[in-house]
UniProtKB/TrEMBL annotation:
Belongs to the class-I pyridoxal-phosphate-dependent aminotransferase family. Its cofactor is pyridoxal 5'-phosphate. 1-aminocyclopropane-1-carboxylate synthase (ACS) enzymes catalyze the conversion of S-adenosyl-L-methionine (SAM) into 1-aminocyclopropane-1-carboxylate (ACC), a direct precursor of ethylene. It catalyses: S-adenosyl-L-methionine = 1-aminocyclopropane-1-carboxylate + S-methyl-5'-thioadenosine + H(+). CDD domains: AAT_like. It comes from Arabidopsis suecica (Swedish thale-cress). This is 1-aminocyclopropane-1-carboxylate synthase. InterPro entries: Aminotransferase_I/II_large, Ethylene_sulfur-biosynth, NHTrfase_class1_PyrdxlP-BS. Pathway: Alkene biosynthesis; ethylene biosynthesis via S-adenosyl-L-methionine; ethylene from S-adenosyl-L-methionine: step 1/2.
Length: 460
């Protein structure tokens, strides 16, 4: 006999978000060896600025050689087991996070818990803040992985805060209250609100007004506010990034024990394989419990050593953040212009590694069945793995998340050519069907007219 977790399907990985990855892995695109394969546009990785990090590593070989002041630190790192983390690394992370926020927020390393990526950070927070069967409210559309990360092992439920395209998916008081009441009707105990800022999948930063509304709402309801800010360093256009901690400070809530932040280097530095994340909280009990939990998923000491050196280089971090934002903006503009040439629009965005793309005009009907059919065709026939809005719990069929920072310029061109070809073929197909429908209606009308004439004559 196996556990219910093993034999159940509550892991959330039967979503089309993950199924698209599986199709890609069967037939991955390669410019030389498999040019007809599937292009991965469903993975939010930042590969645009690797060369900046690689250049730094080449200039600092002693770091990879595990040396400090020309002396080996191998034994020290090999034996280091303190799950509080290397002090030098935590100091460097605190300064880097402050730099992204233009030092409007200061970070205390004593309120920091290191985790093996933001997935671990978010799950640990759920274990700390909620019991099985309790609920968190999350603005939808939201990252599909949350159905796994937040729910699977913790038993926590997610209630979507329904946001709509007509107002750019802004979080409103009505949407918050509606989600809260729906949770209560389901007899769910609401423990908090969790947002991603900037938003995954929308690629938009949460406005100061929305953050003010959220803090007022959570404070009034006496529930927790969790802000996942792993894309904070990717904001490449106005409005600028505003952390929930900055707004909390303005509202004299900066020491509130119910406000928590998640951060990671997976997106801003493009290092998901390094598994570097953290929780930041004013709540001593949360910090203490989460620190104990972190023993199940620590950041390796050599990773901490390397990144402590990298992030302590002010010249590097300043140049990296500026150049990375520039490259992200250019790549995003390239995707948007390419889609526009094909007659496809996007939600206006200013951050992240993806665009929220509007394909509603390509649906055969305004249903999620039609969205799934279109998605299947795009993945299997066009050869592009993109994420359908339904996997992000979007209420409106026809929206898709399309990632743009995980590929070369040449691969992006291939993807855009395929999109244009698909739209042109789809349009021609519709025109042919329209012509046939018109001709068929004409023939039917003639037939009915002739039949009516015969009938009338016989009746006379």
């Amino acid at each position: 006999m196996l556990s219910s977790k093993v034999i159940g399907d509550s892991h959330g990985q039967d979503s089309s978000y993950f199924l698209g990855w599986q199709e890609y892995e069967k037939n991955p695109f390669h410019e030389t060896f498999n040019p007809s394969g599937i292009v991965q546009m469903g993975l939010a990785e930042n590969q645009l600025s690797f060369d900046l990090i690689e250049t730094w590593l080449e200039e600092h070989p002693e770091v990879l050689g595990l040396k400090k002041n020309e002396e080996s630190v191998f034994r020290q790192l090999a034996l280091f087991q303190d799950y509080h983390g290397l002090p030098a690394f935590k100091d460097a992370m605190a300064k880097f996070m402050g730099k992204i926020r233009e030092n409007k927020v200061k970070f205390d390393t004593n309120k920091m818990v290191l985790t093996a990526g933001s997935t671990s950070a978010n799950e640990s927070l759920m274990f700390c803040l909620a019991n099985p069967g309790d609920a968190f409210l999350i603005p939808a559309p939201y990252y599909p992985g949350f159905d796994r990360d937040l729910k699977w092992r913790t038993g926590v439920e997610i209630v979507p805060i329904h946001c709509v395209s007509s107002n750019g998916y802004k979080i409103t008081e009505y949407a918050l209250e509606d989600a809260y009441e729906r949770a209560r009707e389901l007899n769910l105990n609401v423990k908090g609100v969790l947002i991603t800022n900037p938003s995954n999948p929308l690629g938009t930063s949460t406005t100061r007004e929305e953050l003010d509304l959220l803090l007022t709402f959570t404070s009034t309801k006496k529930i927790h506010m969790v802000s996942d800010e792993i894309y904070s360093g990717t904001v490449f256009d106005s409005p600028e990034f505003t952390s929930v901690l900055e707004v909390a400070k303005d509202k004299n809530m900066d020491l509130d024990e119910k406000i928590h932040v998640v951060y990671s280097l997976s997106k801003d530095l493009g290092l998901p394989g390094f598994r570097v994340g953290l929780i930041y909280s004013n709540n001593e009990k949360v910090v203490s419990a989460a620190t104990k939990m972190s023993s199940f998923g620590l950041i390796s000491s050599q990773t901490q050593h390397l990144l402590a050196n990298l992030l302590s280089d002010e010249r590097f971090t300043t140049n990296y953040l500026e150049e990375n934002k520039k490259r992200l903006r250019e790549r995003k503009d390239r995707l948007v212009s390419g889609l526009k040439e094909a007659g496809i629009g996007c939600l206006k965005s200013n951050a992240g590694l993806f665009c929220w793309v509007d394909l509603r005009h390509l649906l055969s009907s305004n249903t999620f069945e039609a969205e799934h059919s279109l998605w299947t065709k795009i993945v299997c026939e066009v050869g592009l793995n993109i994420s359908p809005g339904s996997s992000c719990h979007c209420d409106e069929p026809g929206w898709f998340r399309v990632c743009f920072a995980n590929m070369s310029d040449q691969t992006m061109e291939v993807a855009m050519d395929r999109v244009k070809g698909f739209v042109e073929n789809n349009t021609r197909g519709k025109q042919k069907r329209t012509m046939w429908d018109t001709r068929r209606r004409s023939l039917i009308n003639k037939w009915v007219s002739k039949l009516s004439s015969v009938t009338c004559e016989s009746e006379r």
